[in-house]
Recover the amino acids of this structure.
């Protein structure tokens, strides 16, 4: 599905800022679309055509209950067609919370003197990873404050250490990063360490609002952050994640700006972001929260549906900042990845987790504090196929999201079997007897839906997993 550049946008030139506030405001200011227009835009999306910014703005403006209902229904259908019932699971691992910045909303900001500052030692890091492996985690995102200590070399070394930790059948197969923007050389270094996605959230794409929230430190430079993932691409790191922090400014503006960022990456590098994140602001240590731009649950679900329709092949992430109920809701409309068993206090996976939550060691509160076991149980109950799959990037299938969407039968041939294999590994190594039965029942149901030959092939691989072989994928 080829992206056609917008008629009005700033030209997409690598390493150059691409957000034009007026353009986005103009799209949002026009009249609301009529029902026919909404139906036509949705048909375009279901027909596998990419939506323009103008189309997405029209869906944002279509806020009457009937339009919202048809948008959500279409997003559900599209999600089912593109992703099936898979949900990819990961966990965040906070490595260090020293920070030179003063982001008004974050518990780690330099000015928050109550924050207890920690950088995990190599030994602590290993303990954390072992504890995560003992839970059954296979995919992590390492999170860092922005500080001289957390150089590209440090981030790369940390990733290498994480990959090297093996306990029993446990191993981490994909290490993603959420850290400060790097220069091209820095991105090259972290790529060499074999990382998966490098995530950087713009927080707010509105330049003036950005200055308002980012009072001091290197992060105050809006354009350096905006073009960070261009530098990643220049460094050959083409697996990148974008995001905005909802609650800082008008969600409609941020949603369109995320799509504008997507278009920019596609226009310049022929590959869009691997994932889009849309965290909503949570309470943090010593934070005064201005509720002016607070986003309701209803708008949040509606936005997920619109993003799904606009960029069908991009992974959408919803973290444990949201409670279990909200996560359940947005998984229907488009979210394809969630974290499970997330703990944000530094060192909390391996330390005494019975200790009361300590806001001064975490960046903000999580709302969904269920264990990985519990999250997987709920997913199975709701008919989702929990997946720890890491096959594509390890097989060098880059641009896999394009493949999922455009190569006929790709999901059936690759994604579903790989999700089943990783779930089976989890069931064999980490699940309770009851959960194991529940999981294999779901796998059996999946197999019934596949054609005989493929199902047989999967069954024979499952047999090998039951006999102790691991890390089998296609
Ligand atoms: N320090 C790096 C940075 O700022 O890009 C990376 C780590 S930062 C801890 C990760 C993300 O957490 C930020 O990009 C921001 O969107 C999010 N965040 C910060 N404070 C938050 C809060 N109070 N509630 C929800 N998310 C928050
Ligand atoms: Fe530091 Fe990131 Fe928090 Fe800002 S969001 S204060 S850069 S850790």
């Amino acid at each position: 599905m080829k992206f056609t550049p917008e008629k009005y946008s700033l030209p997409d030139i690598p390493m150059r800022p691409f957000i034009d506030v007026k353009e986005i405001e103009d799209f949002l200011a026009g009249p609301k679309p009529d029902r026919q227009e909404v139906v036509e835009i949705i048909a375009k999306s279901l027909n596998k055509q990419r939506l323009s910014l103008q189309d997405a703005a029209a869906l944002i403006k279509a806020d009457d209950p009937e339009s919202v209902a048809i948008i959500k229904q279409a997003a559900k259908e599209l999600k089912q067609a593109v992703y099936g019932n898979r949900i990819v699971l990961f966990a965040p691992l906070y490595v260090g919370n020293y920070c030179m910045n003063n982001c008004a909303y974050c518990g780690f900001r330099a000015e928050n003197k109550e924050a207890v500052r920690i950088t995990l030692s190599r030994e602590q890091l290993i303990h954390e990873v072992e504890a995560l492996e003992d839970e059954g985690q296979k995919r992590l995102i390492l999170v860092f404050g922005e500080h001289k200590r957390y150089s590209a070399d440090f981030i790369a070394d940390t990733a290498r250490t994480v990959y090297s930790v093996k306990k029993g059948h446990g191993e981490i197969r994909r290490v993603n990063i959420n850290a400060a923007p790097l220069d091209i050389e820095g991105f090259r270094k972290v790529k060499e360490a074999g990382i998966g996605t490098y995530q950087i959230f713009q927080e707010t794409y509105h330049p003036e609002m950005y200055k308002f929230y980012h009072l001091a430190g290197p992060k105050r430079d809006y354009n350096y952050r905006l073009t960070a993932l261009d530098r990643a691409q220049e460094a050959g790191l083409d697996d990148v994640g974008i995001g905005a922090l909802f609650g800082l400014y008008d969600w409609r503006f941020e949603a369109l700006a995320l799509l504008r960022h997507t278009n920019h990456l596609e226009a310049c590098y022929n590959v869009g972001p691997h994932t889009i994140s849309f965290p909503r602001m949570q309470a943090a240590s010593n934070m005064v929260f201005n509720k002016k731009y607070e986003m309701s649950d209803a708008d949040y679900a509606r936005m997920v549906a619109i993003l799904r329709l606009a960029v069908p092949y991009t992974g959408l992430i919803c973290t444990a900042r949201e409670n279990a109920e909200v996560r359940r809701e947005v998984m229907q409309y488009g979210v394809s990845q969630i974290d499970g068993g997330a703990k944000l206090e530094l060192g909390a996976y391996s330390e005494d987790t019975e200790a009361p939550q300590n806001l001064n060691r975490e960046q903000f509160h999580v709302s969904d504090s269920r264990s990985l076991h519990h999250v997987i149980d709920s997913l199975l109950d709701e008919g989702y196929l929990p997946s720890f799959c890491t096959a594509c990037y390890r097989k060098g299938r880059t641009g896999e999201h394009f493949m999922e969407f455009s190569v006929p039968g790709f999901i059936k041939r690759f994604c579903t079997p790989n999700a089943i294999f990783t779930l089976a590994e989890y069931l064999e190594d980490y699940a309770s007897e009851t959960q194991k039965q529940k999981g294999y029942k779901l796998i059996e149901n999946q197999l019934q839906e596949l054609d005989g030959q493929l199902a047989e092939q999967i069954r024979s691989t499952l047999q090998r997993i039951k006999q102790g072989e691991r890390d089998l994928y296609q």
Observations:
- The longest strand covers residues 86-96.
